[in-house]
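agent: user wants the structure for IS4/IS5 family transposase from Geobacillus stearothermophilus. delegating to structure tool.
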Amino acid sequence: VKLHVAYSPESSLPADVVETIGLRHDGPVGEQLTNPQQVLVEDRAYFKIERLDRFVEQQQLFVMRMKDNIELQQKKSLNRLASTSSSVQTDFTCQLGTKQCRSTKRHRVVIVRDANGRDIRVVTNLFHASAETIADMYQQRWAVEVFFR
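agent: tool returned. relaying tokens verbatim.
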């Protein structure tokens, strides 16, 4: 059994829960948790290029970890104030994927280094937030994991 959770940071409680069997793919279930009033923060199991483009069209805000094999096309750096204490490595916009399957929209990518020194690639359509805020939002996703332990 898997639980897919919409988590409310204000109350530190789940806002919505969808239960599935363990063998069901996570991606389509994530669609059930969409709410334009909230920011979706999801792990790479929910990642699909077409879904990101659709979220932009539907004005569904999101922060999502990218799969490691996703190619980044036509990168354009975003100006940001560098901080020596920040875990953010880089911040840019790009199209995602290959010629055969490429996003039609430009997405923002923030690469953040985790506590173990690994780079985590996060994609978002939050252009008004700082790269550090986006990194924090993704890292707070773990609050859901901790809630159920």
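agent: one observation worth passing along. The chain has a mean pLDDT of 85.
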